[in-house]
Amino acid sequence: MTEYREIAAGEFKAKCLKLMDLVQKTKTPLVITKHGKPVVKLVPADGEANDFFGCMKGSVRIVGDIVSPIDVEWEANA
Q1: What is the C-alpha separation between 10 and 19, in angstroms, rounded?
Q2: Residue 32 belongs to some domain of the structure
Q3: What are the DSSP calls for 37-78, one per residue?
Q4: Model pLDDT for residues 4-50, shown as the tens digit of each residue
Q5: Taking Cα atoms as reference points, which of 8, 59, 3 lies closest to residue 29?
Q6: What is the pLDDT of residues 48-72, one digit of tens each?
C-alpha cells in the first residue's frame, strides 16, 4: 500500500507552494480533505525521462567522418 499524508483543504490553501515542493522532493502523495473526507490527491509529476524529444541524447557516438562522400559504388536494383 502506498504511503501518503492527509491535510485539510484550508491548511493546504495556506501552505500550497511549500506542500507542492515537499511532495516533489519526497515523492509522497498528499490527500487533501474537506470535512474529513478525501477530495483530491496531489502526486509528484513524472520526470522528464518520458519526454520524447531528446530522450536519446548522449546514446549515440560518432566515429570517423560522417560528412565526406565515401568511395564505394552502390548497386541499386530498381
Answers
A1: 13
A2: yes
A3: EEEEEE-PPPPGGG-STTTTTT-----S-SSSPP--------
A4: 799 999 999 999 999 999 999 999 999 999 999 999 999 998 765 55
A5: 3
A6: 555 677 778 888 888 888 888 877 7
**Can you give the CATH number for the domain in which 23 is found?**
3.40.1620.10
Residue 5 identity: R
Q: What cell numbers appear for 13 in the block?
A: 490553501
The one-letter amino acid at 52: F
Whole-number Å distance between alpha carbons of 3 and 64: 52
Q: How far apart are CA 42 and CA 19, in angstroms?
A: 9
pLDDT of residue 78: 57
Q: Is residue 23 part of a domain?
A: yes
Q: Is residue 33 part of a domain?
A: yes
Domain count, the chain: 1
